[in-house]
Amino acid sequence: MTNDTLSMERMQRTGLSCVRRLPAYLQLLRALRAEGREFVSGTVLARVHYLEPVIVRKDLAITGVMGKPRLGFPVNELILAIEKFLGWDRAARAVLVGAGNLGAALLGYQGFEDFGLRIVGAFDADPRKIGREMKGHRVLPLQRLPGFVARGKVELGILTVPAPAAQAAAAVLVRARIRGIWNFTSVRLQVPPEVVVQKEDLAEGLAVLSHRLRQPGAQGGDSVPPRQV
Amino acid sequence: MTNDTLSMERMQRTGLSCVRRLPAYLQLLRALRAEGREFVSGTVLARVHYLEPVIVRKDLAITGVMGKPRLGFPVNELILAIEKFLGWDRAARAVLVGAGNLGAALLGYQGFEDFGLRIVGAFDADPRKIGREMKGHRVLPLQRLPGFVARGKVELGILTVPAPAAQAAAAVLVRARIRGIWNFTSVRLQVPPEVVVQKEDLAEGLAVLSHRLRQPGAQGGDSVPPRQV
DNA sequence: CTGGGCTCGATACTTCAATATCGATACTGA
DNA sequence: TCAGTATCGATATTGAAGTATCGAGCCCAG
Ligand SMILES: NC(=O)c1ccc[n+]([C@@H]2O[C@H](COP(=O)([O-])OP(=O)(O)OC[C@H]3O[C@@H](n4cnc5c(N)ncnc54)[C@H](O)[C@@H]3O)[C@@H](O)[C@H]2O)c1
Ligand SMILES: NC(=O)c1ccc[n+]([C@@H]2O[C@H](COP(=O)([O-])OP(=O)(O)OC[C@H]3O[C@@H](n4cnc5c(N)ncnc54)[C@H](O)[C@@H]3O)[C@@H](O)[C@H]2O)c1
Q1: How far is the CA of A49 from the C1' of D17 (A)?
Q2: pTM for the complete prediction?
């Protein structure tokens, strides 16, 4: 059985929780590679992220990379495998729709290249914003989006318009044959089944934070720390 | 058994997945209240959010509000119960640390009052930003944070500084006796157990999106997959 | 060259969320 | 008035994620 077949088989039964943790591993692995480390144990990765070592090993198993006893996992190989697994080996091209508060922040964020994303265009409906330069991008009118997407092989749309405009803007993206939408509005978008929508809802995190503040027995930290020492 | 006792008992065994869904219900319930609706069935709530009716009923059960057969749940009572459950009946006061790209977006966001949050101050370390007005807030030097927090009964800190500055900035917040930190950096903060940290990681969502784009059998629409504690 | 100890992968167990099913209730409409 | 039905709450079942444990491999120290 080839490595690829193995990888594909495991991909089927991949839990989402695991996928969510991969970027954190990737970040640390890249830092280790920059230091020249060749191997790292799952135990070390776990300690940094307050996880159980066994979770890390199980997560890394889906990449198909084998660790060596006493040594750990090969850092560089693991980086490449995770990047390939997530499709981050080549950055996906994305357009941003809604060059407002949040849109400007995302346009100005330098870290997306590390996460397999490159914003190549910004669009807005407000005539006062169109034509202006924003964080190194010229804001274009929404009417030019379909041509831009088709010509530029754009795969993703980032949606940062006000809630009432969200569904209509999503429809424009869908008609432009975008493959996925990163949705920062609070609207549940209706899209055809071939379009993937990932909703990013700040209210969710805020609800968890508020709730934990009210919980008397809540523990601090980003997650449950394993056991001390 | 009083409603309060019931509510407190159920609060103990509340799952996080449920808490994450509450803001979505709340949003729709408020819209219904604005229309004058007095009752709404769990089935309707479920349809809007693409959930199973059973899930909605179980989620709403933790508020202690009882629904009536054939009628549904009392809208206004439910809103008040959810707000109280999350502690959103009075907005928590928060300071923002790091008035950069993302910080400016959050400062300019008008929707936080609906989520029980009020940003009352903005802080930065960059002398060029200090003193400037930003989205209606004067940016203050970090040294003034402790006094500001103590005097203003500030409970929350919003962390939007670059990653290398994150731990130090968190330490300032902790020393100022903040109760919770909303962490937008990619750093796992080390804080004492009485401080609650909620980490908001865009890379997680992006990883899920990328992965689903590569999954041939993935279906569209946004789902809210459960996350680890 | 040989035993100790760290680490890996595999398997079994536990916990919790999602789903299915059921009887009970109260409004609708004939 | 009373059958019909949408809806509720409760319980049981399924499934996924996290946890515990074990044997095996391999490096290193002595
Ligand atoms: N700002 C934040 O911190 C924040 C946080 C969480 C969620 N959000 C969500 O992000 C979205 C945008 O928030 P914001 O604060 O940036 O609002 P904003 O008003 O600052 O920006 C919205 C932008 O969208 C443009 N726009 C309006 N209608 C459009 C259309 N039909 N097509 C294209 N562009 C259009 C507007 O001209 C404006 O530039 C909202 O849905 C909000 O709920 C924002
Ligand atoms: N911009 C985005 O869209 C985005 C998205 C996801 C995550 N983030 C994260 O948010 C954080 C900020 O991102 P950004 O794009 O706003 O960066 P930024 O550089 O625009 O803003 C950072 C701000 O923090 C200030 N600062 C630096 N050191 C400080 C200190 N010790 N104390 C107080 N303030 C200090 C800087 O002066 C600057 O104003 C980063 O950790 C980034 O990873 C940003």
Answers
A1: 18
A2: 0.91
